[in-house]
Amino acid sequence: MMKEGKFGTMEAVALTTIVLITKAFYTSIRVLVKATSTSAWFATLISCSVSILLFLLVYLLMKRFPNKELVEIFEIVTGKFIGKILALIFSAYFVYYAGSSLREFVEMIKAYVLPYTPPSAIIFVFLAVVVFFAYVGLEGIARMSYISLIIVIIGLTLILILPLPFYNVDNLFPLAGYSLQTTLFSGLLRASAYSDVIFLAFIINAIHGVKQFKKVGLTSLALSGAIISVTILCSILAFEYTQASENLSALFQLSRNIYFNRFFQRVESIFIFIWVVASIMNVALAFYMSASIFCKTFKIPNHRPSLLPFAFCTFTVTLLPQSLSEVVERNVLFLRQYSAVITYLIPLLVLLLSLIRGKKGEKIKI
Amino acid sequence: MKKKQNFLIMLFSYITYKDKKNIKEFYIPEVDEISKQQQDQKIKDEKDSVHKEKKSRATLKKPVSVAEENEERKAEKKKADDKTISTDIAQNIDYIKAKFNAPANKDIVFREFMIAGKYKAFITYLDGMVDKNIINNFILRPLLNDEKFKDTNEGCQLDYIVQRVLETNQIRTITNPTDAVYEILSGNTLLYTDGCDYYITNETKGFPARGVEKPVVEGVIQGAQEAFNESLRTNVTLVRKIVKNPNLTTEFIKVGQKSQLQCAIMYIDGLTNPAIIDEVKRRIDNLDIDYSQGDGMLEQLIEDNTFSIIPTMLTTERPDRTASHLIEGRVAILVEGSPFSKIVPVTLYTLIHSTEDANMRWPFGTFLRLIRLLGIFFATLLPAIYVAMTNFHQEMIPTDLLIAIAKAKENVPFPTIVEVLLMEVSFELIREAGIRIPGVIGNTLGIIGALILGQAAVQANIVSPVLIIVVAITGLGNFAVPNVSLALGIRLLRFAFIIMGAFLGFYGLTAVFMITGMYLVSQKSFGVPFVAPVAPRTTRSSDLISRKPVWKQEKRSDGLNPIGIGRQPKVSRKWTQEDPNYSYSREGNDDEGR
């Protein structure tokens, strides 16, 4: 088996939270505001609660097989062959996730900060960092995520508080947006946006078992739901929904708008810093997960030799879309709206199957 | 006529061919070549000696007494070698002479004499390593005083000498010849009398050493002004002087084959986690090297990651700092001949602490640390941020400042990155030259440095004045780092940041920042994660960056797992809970609610 090391609850929460809230830096907010207008900020809370419900169902599955990781559970319930295929679907999903997120990042950084730099240079540096992170391993990523989360939260707070003079409460009305049905429907659909939390099920031994799994999952889902909701709220407050649905990145626009006097204005540097930090953590984890799930599926004891091939795969995925609009319309739409089909549906089907077949894990002696 | 002939010969010599004169040049032969030569020489010598012996045997055979013959046989039975000490004085002298390559080696001194007029004896030591006063007055004088040997018995005299004659403070019996050689090497005096099969070693170390002076690298305003020197004994004593604890243990380990370096490991028994002590000893014990120059080489040999930019051990020249870390549950490694102690295990935060923080009241201590952190931030990032901002993110600079920078840069022909590298490299050059420069001409360096960095470069339009400020602040920041190795690491990292900043702006900076962070959190110092207690998160420390008041620092570092984590009880200032001896109660309740 792979040795992944262990880390504490705080680090696990930080890791999950930073992965979940990275979306707030990208086009997610714009899409949601476009779909639900002024009600976007509680639409995301609906998504979050739906995700929490689904997560609890996954928790039931994990509880049936204590001390087993999802890859092993797949094999126990569905047999070796199908189990391996299911695990590989997840591995491929994480490659797709990493590649698409990276592409979204590259497109945005080209648009905002580095218009003349060749994208391949940006991708190369990013992948180098990500491969190094994955090389060090999960323990390192978790520790780094704790430090990163502190930085990101501080930066985020600054960006959300400093444009205070531009906030207008009137922008929030009408509260229900286009209509409550639309909001509810969008909220349900975008539960996928919080489905990344599933990665915890693959590293359950590193976070000290099922109990911590539940605790970490719920805490980080609630935390990230709150953070994203507040971000959307601030975005609507500052721009009203028409403009907010046009911004490529709401947070970037917010940081650009900051103006106190001629000297203290436009603090995008803070944004760029925390945005890159969060993106690196996000992609590094997805990348590590893809390699690690692959290695666990085939019982390869060391994940390091597989990193370069996986980096190549990720690079390929990154280059597949033709433009930013294609990334947003296809890759990101899939990740944020329909990925639950993979991330939640597969474990739930496995849970159902295990109930029908009466499979259960060994009880642990306490 | 003769003159003419000579002239002809000379003339002739110009046009005739002459064999070149064969000049033999020196070369360094292979080892087996030398041994072959020596063997040849030996065989030749043996042949000669056989001839001579044959001759001498033919001529002379002396009759000997029975007692003498017995003695001879005894001596023949026990030859002095690396494992046994002979009972014959001549054998032992020969053995030690052979070991020390005497008489070619003039450092080793033999002094032979007779005890009580009948026992042959000798003392031996290395010249210059010993205190001659002790040898003359407290070893030789009593030994040569026949009065003291009135009631001796026959046989080995050493026991009697140890008990009644010698006047030195430390005496040990040595039964192993290798140990005997080591004793001589460490400056002790060996005593032997005929008929014994062991040596006596007397503590006579007396080599020249520097006195205890003020710290050079880690100077403080408030606090002790003592530093280690090059003598291991003194250093250990300096620490022991501060830690008055019977459990403070000093263990000695030898390192190196060709030169045995004495190394002391200090810890407090019953406080330091035994696993740490064991690991330190295991690493030092299992070194198979030729020579270790001092603590710097030892550090490289036993550290966790040889390729680490940032040091994973704390180097300090201060006995008080060493003592405070010992009491914290760490292990100190001191090395003969180096005025520093190495402390393990440490975390990143230990490296940015200074002794002074503890001596100051807590607000000042905390403030100084924040300043130091700011210094580290400037030293690593400031030039890189400047490059990134001016190259990629001009819109982030406030307009007025941007205009000022642009104006200053107007006449400079180089791109910013060249400017920055130019200044950084020349600054590094000045710093390196400043250390190597002979003291007499040291003052000139300041003038040259100031001229290059300052006025001239700006006037010649080589660099912009803003950059001078940036580089100067960077340099200042670097000097604020209290640990020399850490400062060096930061100096190297700075260049990585500058280059990435020049290529990819803030994005590049952040990438290097993340790599550095990841690198740091994955490091370990003797089993303790390097960035603990932040990543991985363990119990909060009361003395990390902000210092709590001394009485609130109730626990030792969690990462070290010491035996007994508590430093002091919850109430350490017991006097606050009782009334003063001379007190009065105020009238009225005007203090209520305070």
Describe this structure as you would to a colleague.
The complex is a heterodimer of chains A (366) and B (594). Chain A has 366 residues and is mainly alpha-helical. Chain A has one domain (22-357): Amino acid/polyamine transporter I (Up-down Bundle), CATH 1.20.1740.10. Chain A is 71% helix and 0% strand. Chain A contains 14 helices and no strands. Chain A is globular. The relative contact order of chain A is 0.24. With 594 residues, chain B is an alpha+beta fold. Among the domains of chain B are: 76-202, no CATH class; 232-346, no CATH class; 362-529, no CATH class. Chain B has 19 helices and 12 strands. Chain B has helices at 2-15, 31-59, 66-77, 89-99, 132-144, 158-165, 177-185, 232-242, 274-285, 295-302, 319-328, 348-351, 355-359, 362-391, 399-409, 416-436, 442-459, 465-479, 484-521; strands at residues 108-115, 119-126, 171-174, 189-193, 199-202, 248-255, 261-268, 314-316, 331-335, 341-344, 524-525, 528-529. Chain B has a 5-stranded antiparallel β-sheet, sandwiched between helices. In chain B, strands 6-7-9-10-8 form a 5-stranded antiparallel β-sheet, sandwiched between helices. The longest helix of chain B is centred in the C-terminal third of the chain and has 38 residues, at 484-521. Classes of the chains: A mainly alpha (366), B alpha+beta (594).
CATH topology assignment of chain A:
Amino acid/polyamine transporter I
Oligomer: heterodimer
Provide the number of structural domains of chain A.
1
- The gyration radius over C-alpha positions of chain B equals 35 Å
Fourth-tier CATH superfamily name of chain A: Amino acid/polyamine transporter I
Percentage of residues in DSSP E strands of chain B: 5-15%
Low-confidence stretches of chain A: none
Strand portion of chain A? under 5%
Biggest chain pair contact, residues each?
A-B, 40 and 32 residues
Mean pLDDT of chain A: 90
Return the CATH class of chain A: Mainly Alpha
- Give the second-level CATH assignment, the architecture of chain A: Up-down Bundle
Largest sheet of chain B: 5 strands, antiparallel
Order of helices and strands of chain A: HHHHHHHHHHHHHH
Radius of gyration of chain A: 20 Å
Low-confidence stretches of chain B: none
